[in-house]
């Protein structure tokens, strides 16, 4: 008798909790799916706020975004990757028609919490604004990007990631960098 | 009979899950790298504690003794998964930085310990107060640890992007890293011992209740 009761109670509890879980899953499913998409589109809007819309283009095996404002091209954006301290650092980089950086955002990173993950802070990534390809360096190497305290490898990796994105863009849309001929 | 207020208050003071019972130390050490993480972890654990307390105390007379642990674990795992789904939906950044430690709340000793020793023996009001107290005690403890680590390790305290405190020191990066967690935890335990807070002699899931008279 007690065995039967145990089985019934355990089964009932499992059914009730499974129903609760199913409900929560249905409730959050769409929101979770849109979160990762949102991360990209919201970052795009942040770095090129003037644009009315973004068109995704593919060139070879890479893809990039063309920012459209009043039906004309206003800038380009793409993602870049580089090996950081704790894994791949993925950045989104937006440039204007001359190739000046409009903004940089960190899309994915797995750097040390409290150290390298400070790359996510505006104080760090805003330093890339108005920089040009091939001129991006840490300040201790003659550039103007101040490294994150205690996270030089991460700082270098973000720069490499940004350069990767810039290389993709110059291949794809052929932006000629001033001083790079 | 213990008053309701004491039922709540004991989780923060004389039965504090971290500093007195020394339970669930793995997430305590791992997620206290920043105050943001500690807040997220504390809220998630408190949510699971309170929801589990409601279910376990409501079902306590129906649950046969021999299947009580599976039933508790199923209930706890359900609320942990619910907490994680909501975190993924509304705060993906927090979900990423807490990583594996959210699912691991399932096996957190604090929650199973309270379910086994308290929720399964007390009515819903007392269980909820106990859960709130233990959750808040846990949250305050990890906030204290993460505050010390973040301040010494980075020289400033930033909560949700707002800088609330900065001290003019050279940051001791080690406090952000793993050794800093052990150092901070050890020194705080020593401090509380010196102040006369008694640590539970044996640290198993059941001592948190049996060691202290309710």
List the helices and strands and how they pair.
The complex is a heterodimer of chains A (181) and B (214).
Chain A: H1 2-47, E1 53-59, E2 62-69, E3 72-83, E4 88-95, E5 101-108, H2 122-125, H3 152-173
Antiparallel strand pairs in A: 1-2, 2-3, 3-4, 4-5
Chain B: H1 4-9, H2 25-30, H3 35-59, H4 68-90, H5 92-98, H6 109-119, H7 124-154, E1 156-159, E2 162-166, H8 178-194, H9 207-210
Antiparallel strand pairs in B: 1-2
Helix pairs in contact in B: 3-4, 3-6, 3-7, 4-5, 4-6, 6-7, 7-8
Characterise this structure:
The complex is a heterodimer of chains A (181) and B (214). Chain A contains three helices and five strands. Chain A is an alpha+beta fold. Chain A has one domain. Chain A has a five-stranded antiparallel beta sheet. Chain A starts with a helix and ends in an 8-residue tail after the last helix. With 214 residues, chain B is mainly alpha-helical. Chain B has a two-stranded antiparallel ribbon with strand order 1-2. In chain B, helix 4 packs across helix 6 and helix 6 packs antiparallel against helix 7. Chain B is globular and about 60 Å long. The C terminus of chain B is likely disordered. Chains A and B meet through helix 1 of A and helix 4 and helix 7 of B.
Provide tags for this entry.
heterodimer, A: 181 residues, alpha+beta, five-stranded antiparallel β-sheet, 3 helices, 5 strands, 24% strand, elongated, disordered C terminus, B: 214 residues, mainly alpha, two-stranded antiparallel ribbon, 9 helices, 61% helix, globular
Q: How is the largest sheet of chain B built, in terms of strand order?
A: 1-2
Greatest chain-chain contact: A-B, 27 and 32 residues
Determine the N-to-C terminus distance of chain A. 87 Å
**Share of residues in helices of chain B:** 55-70%
Shape of chain A: elongated
Helix content of chain A: 25-40%
Uncertain stretches of 5 or more adjacent residues of chain A: 177-181
Please summarize the sheet with the most strands of chain A.
5 strands, antiparallel
Rounded mean pLDDT of chain B is: 85
Question: Counting H and I runs of at least 4 residues, what is the number of helices of chain B?
Answer: 9
């Amino acid at each position: 008798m007690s065995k039967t009761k145990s089985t019934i109670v355990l089964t009932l509890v499992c059914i009730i909790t499974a129903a609760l879980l199913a409900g929560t899953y249905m409730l959050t499913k769409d929101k979770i799916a849109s979160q990762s998409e949102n991360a990209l589109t919201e970052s795009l809007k942040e770095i090129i706020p003037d644009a009315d819309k973004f068109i995704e283009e593919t060139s070879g095996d890479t893809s990039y975004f063309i920012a459209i404002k009043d039906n004309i091209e206003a800038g380009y954006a793409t993602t870049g990757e580089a090996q950081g301290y704790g894994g791949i650092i993925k950045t989104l980089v937006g440039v204007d028609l001359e190739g000046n950086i409009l903004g940089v955002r960190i899309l994915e990173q797995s750097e040390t919490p409290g150290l390298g993950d400070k790359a996510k802070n505006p104080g760090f990534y805003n330093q890339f604004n108005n920089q040009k390809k091939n001129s991006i360096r840490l300040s201790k190497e003659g550039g103007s990007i101040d490294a994150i305290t205690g996270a030089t490898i991460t700082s270098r990796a973000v720069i490499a990631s940004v350069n990767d994105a810039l290389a993709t863009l110059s291949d794809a849309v052929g932006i000629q960098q001033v001083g790079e001929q | 009979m213990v008053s309701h207020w004491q039922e709540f208050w004991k989780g923060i003071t004389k039965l504090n899950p971290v500093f007195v019972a020394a339970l669930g130390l793995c997430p305590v050490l791992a997620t206290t790298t920043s105050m943001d993480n500690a807040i997220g972890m504390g809220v998630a654990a408190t949510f699971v504690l309170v929801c589990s307390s409601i279910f376990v105390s409501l079902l306590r007379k129906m649950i046969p003794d021999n299947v009580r642990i599976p039933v508790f674990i199923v209930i706890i795992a359900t609320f942990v998964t619910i907490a994680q789904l909501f975190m993924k939906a509304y705060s993906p950044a927090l979900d990423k930085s807490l990583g594996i430690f959210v699912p691991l709340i399932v096996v957190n000793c604090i929650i199973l310990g309270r379910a086994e020793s308290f929720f399964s023996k007390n009515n819903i009001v007392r269980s909820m107060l106990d859960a709130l107290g233990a959750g808040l005690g846990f949250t305050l403890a990890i906030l204290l640890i993460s505050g010390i680590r973040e301040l010494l390790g980075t020289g400033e305290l930033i909560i949700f992007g707002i800088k609330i405190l900065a001290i003019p020191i050279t940051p001791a990066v080690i406090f952000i890293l793993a050794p800093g967690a052990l150092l901070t935890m050890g020194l705080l335990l020593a401090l509380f011992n010196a102040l006369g807070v008694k640590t539970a002699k044996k640290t198993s899931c059941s001592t948190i209740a049996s060691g202290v008279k309710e």
